[in-house]
Every structure is written in C-alpha cells, then in structure tokens.
Amino acid sequence: MEIVLSGIRPTGNLHLGNYFGAVKNFVKMQEENHCFFFIADYHSLTTHPNPKDLQKNVNTILVEYLASGIDPQKATLYVQSDIPQTAELYLFLNMNAYLGELERCASFKEKVRNHQDNVNAGLLTYPSLMAADILIHHADKVPVGKDQQQHLEMTRVFAARFNRIYGVSYFKEPQAFNFGQNLVKIPGLDGSTKMGKSEGNAIYLADEPDVIRKKVMKAKTDMGPKEPNAEKPQEIANLFTIMQHVSSPEVYQYFDQKYNDCSIRYGDLKKQLAEDIVLFCQPIREKIQDLEKNTPYLQKIRQTGKEKATQSAQKTIEEIRHIIGF
Ligand code: TRP
What we know:
This protein is mainly α. The chain contains 14 helices and 5 strands. The two termini are 32 Å apart. The structure holds tryptophan.
C-alpha cells in the first residue's frame, strides 16, 4: 500500500473547485492507499491570522472534509499542529536548507513581490515545513497542483541531502501523485479558467440554495452563438464544464444541442445549472450543518487523527534523532 499525503491551508470554506479538483479524488484514494490528509495550520501562520479565525478555519476544513466523504477510519485525518514532531523535523531540515535555494523558490519570490510588508522567515522556509509534513510520514505520493510542484521538488532535494550528509538511505524521495484522467479544473463563473477563493468567483459547498442561485444567475455570458456549431467562448464553455460535473448527461446534451443550433437561452441554462448545483451540494451541506453542531464528535475525530498521525511521526523523529546523533 502506498502512502499518500496531502495538506490544505485552512483559509475558509471549500468550494466546488476544491471538491472536484481534489477532495473527490481523496475519497477514492483512501480506499486503496494509506492516506494522510491534514490541515496545515502551521503554514497558515505566515499571514498572521487572529486566533479565533484560525480556530474557526481549522474546524471548517475538518467538518467539510468529513461531509465530503473523507473517512477517518480509512484515512488519517489530522491537524498539523497536533503533531509537534513536524515542527521538530522542520528545525532539522532548516539546518540543511540554503538561503539561496529558498530565495529562488517561485512562491517566495511572488510573496516578496506582492506582500513586501510581511516577508517573514516562515515564508522563506515554507518549503522546509512542507518537506517536514511529507517526510515525517515517509509519503510515497503527494497530489499537488502546478503551484506546489516546486515545493515537492525541494522536498526531494532536502531528503537526498539529509541522506548524503548523514551517509544513510533513510528518506525516500516522494513523487507527485498524478490524477491522470481524474484531474479536474473547475472554472469560475466570471469567465476565468479557475474557481478560487481569492478570485472571488467561487460557489462553496456550504452555500445556501438562494446564494447558489444568485451566483449562477450573475455568471458571465455573451450575446449568444451567431452561427451553428460555433466554438464556445471561455465564459460559456465554463458553464458547460461545471454542468458536466453536476448535471446528468441528458441535460448537458440538451443544452449543448441548443447551443449548436443557436436556440439556446442562457437564462434557461443558468436556471438548470443552478438547480443541479443546489441538488449536488444539498446532501453535503446538510452533513456540514449536522457536524458543525456536534462538537464532541469532532473532538473525537481530531483526537483519533492525532493518535494515528503521532504513531507514524514519533517513530520517524526518534529515528532521525538517532541518525543526527542526539
Ligand atoms: N502548501 C500547500 C498549499 O498551499 C499546503 C501543504 C502544506 C501541503 N503541507 C503540504 C500540500 C504537504 C501537500 C503536502 O496548497
């Protein structure tokens, strides 16, 4: 069984892009792999959240992961800061991480460009913390998007360097988990190719039906096709892409046909799409609402995750301490 690991920074609610792009695959992966899914609350400290927001956001991901079908019996679902062994490994890895390579990291350069007022050491050493997350459980595979590929590459560099410095073959080099055909990118409702929180174009799993309807009805469209079988402009293609995931094939074909023979009315398409999103989200939203009220259950889940993750992390940290010479 392969060890698969994925972390998510707690920055708010999950949207359809998170769901179809990642979480839905996690639910499948947990059947065949030893999966670690964790909430990267240490990482989120780089932006200095206030304690209340931090706590709320961690809870939100926990609830929404569970509501989406992540099974804490099958996978190890935990909160990063519940495993301080990660922080210890981060310290060790930082001793072998060089300023030059950290500064050259694309995500760091971007932060320096866009957040000049807060270029802290946590941002600089973000890749060592991520490497610690991955190496503490000896993950084989890490599902990562494009923006995280460089971090995974640096994890391999840090793993190999540790082995070289101490003359061991202790760490293995983790590989990217390729979703292959299951790789899904959900576009925004504003004509952009990506649904995202920071893009401000997202539909959240927890959105109430009327909120979903309003968002969909406001989606960007054009004047309509002028000739049969025209290529769909981005904003129209986007609506069809979302439809592909939430609607039945018959519904999709019906509107595709209407587009192709130029009889489509975008108002009808949006109404249908909105209702299908509402139906799709409803069972998840209901679970979210149930779980949110069930603090004792959530505490139990969190405790179980902590115990399972600690077992693996503690073993690693003891072995590393021994290798280093403590
Ligand atoms: N950096 C990742 C992100 O922002 C989150 C993350 C932290 C992560 N640690 C990880 C992802 C370890 C995969 C493996 O999306």
